[in-house]
Design a protein that fits this description.
heterodimer, A: 327 residues, alpha/beta, Nucleotidyltransferase, domain 5, 2 domains, 5-stranded mixed β-sheet, 9 helices, 22% strand, globular, B: 80 residues, alpha+beta, 3-stranded antiparallel β-sheet, 2 helices, 3 strands, 31% strand, elongated
């Protein structure tokens, strides 16, 4: 079975073709174009959507060419229907609906966050993990129970990705800033005390952001180092509590911030203490990509027919814990 | 005095099949419009007719026309 997945929730416009044979999936192509705002500035939804509009047809044709298939070969098309930025989501939806309508292909609206998790499971082989989803749009600890992902803990304000991006932009980096902060943090070992806020199973990063900005005027490397150590320690504490409570024997980290090596290092230590296996999504598929959407669409097609076109909406604030999972 | 502006955009010279596909691609997003703004899309044979109407805030009307026409362009590009 061949599927096309379209991702356009924020910075990235991506198309991917995957082949599904039983429970196995193979990525035949995954092509992306990423909107880069000017240095020091955040994402502007309308500017990002214009970027997606300009690049959508090229990304699609490159993706099909790389996979060696024609549109007519596809068994389904899936698109990220939310959560995300409205103008960006609508571009991916229009591309998917156009193909579905013109070529009579079944269409599947997919939750973007579920896409991160399902592709992570496919690529890492994790069976029943506690999931840490850390990206620009999410900071959530999740466990699967009774056909739904349940939120064990989450951020009370900004996400971990927003924390890194907003701080990075304040010192002149271009979004996404995670890699730049990680590199600069590696040049310091001087820890400056910063606010540490874990409330029950939840975390709060807004105070940490303000305090780190004030430290950065003295030393940017110290600020980056201390920010990472504090934020990741908060996440590690929440993960440790969740592993202890749920008794899960696997931890899987997905989302753009999963690419951070220091975060992985700290979480591996947590897993050792709890005798749990540690999985992290491969770097290439940590950020947003069409493969996540395509694989989830292929999984959904096992248990339901494509959506009627008139019901293929986009939902900017579509929480993953409202999605029933029957496959 | 309230200002009401109507804008009609007609897309000619496309096949009936393409006109139908574009209409179906655009319509699901034609919901939850801000107050005073509306859009109606009609397929007449091989033509697509977009009727926009805006009251008071012309920037919203212009922004909507801009986005809808961009989406039409995307839809036509990916099915050509």
């Amino acid at each position: 079975m061949l599927g096309l997945g379209i991702e356009s929730t924020a910075h990235t416009f991506s198309c991917a073709v995957l082949e599904k044979n039983g429970k196995k999936g193979k990525i035949l192509s995954d092509v992306r174009k990423i909107y880069r705002p000017p240095d020091g500035e955040g994402i502007h939804p309308r500017e990002a959507s214009r970027h997606h509009i300009e690049n959508s047809s090229t990304v699609l044709s490159d993706c099909l060419h790389e996979a060696g298939i024609k549109i007519q070969d596809l068994d389904l098309v899936s698109y990220a229907a939310g959560p995300g930025l409205g103008p960006c989501l609508r571009v991916g939806a229009v591309v998917a609906r156009s193909l579905a309508s013109y070529y009579k292909i079944p269409i599947y609206p997919v939750n973007h966050a579920i896409g991160h998790i399902e592709l992570g499971k496919l690529l890492t082989g994790a069976q029943n993990p506690l999931v840490l989803l850390v990206s620009g749009g999410h900071t959530m600890l999740l466990a699967f129970l009774n056909k739904q992902w349940r939120v064990f803990g989450e951020t009370l304000d900004i996400t971990l990705g927003q924390l890194l991006d907003q701080f990075g932009r304040s010192i002149g980096f271009a979004s996404p800033c995670g890699k730049n902060i990680e590199d600069l943090a590696a040049t310091s070992t001087n820890y400056v005390s910063l606010p540490y806020s874990v409330k029950g199973n939840d975390v709060s990063f807004s105070g940490l952001l303000s305090a780190t900005k004030s430290v950065s005027s003295k030393s940017k490397p110290d600020a980056c180092f201390s920010l990472q150590e504090t934020a990741f320690a908060m996440i590690s504490e929440a993960v440790e509590r969740a592993l202890s409570f749920t008794r899960k024997k696997e931890l899987m980290v997905v989302g753009g911030v999963a690419a951070n090596k220091r975060l992985s290092e700290m979480l591996q230590d947590v897993c050792k203490r709890h005798n749990a296996k540690f999985f992290v999504v491969p770097l290439k598929f940590a950020g947003d990509c069409g493969s996540q959407i395509c694989w989830t669409g292929l999984l959904e097609s096992q248990v339901k027919k494509g959506a009627p076109l008139e019901n293929t909406f986009v939902t900017q604030s579509w929480r993953l814990d409202t999605v029933k999972i029957d496959y | 005095m309230s200002l009401t502006c109507q804008v009609q955009v007609i897309l000619n010279n496309i096949t009936e099949k393409k006109a139908e596909a574009v209409k179906k691609a655009i319509e699901p997003d034609n919901v939850n419009f801000p107050k005073g703004l509306s859009l109606n899309v009609e397929k007449i044979d091989n033509r697509l007719v977009f009727n926009f109407e805006g009251t008071e805030d012309m920037r919203k009307l212009i922004g909507t026309i801009d986005e809808v026409l961009e989406h039409v362009q995307v839809a036509l590009k990916v099915i050509e």
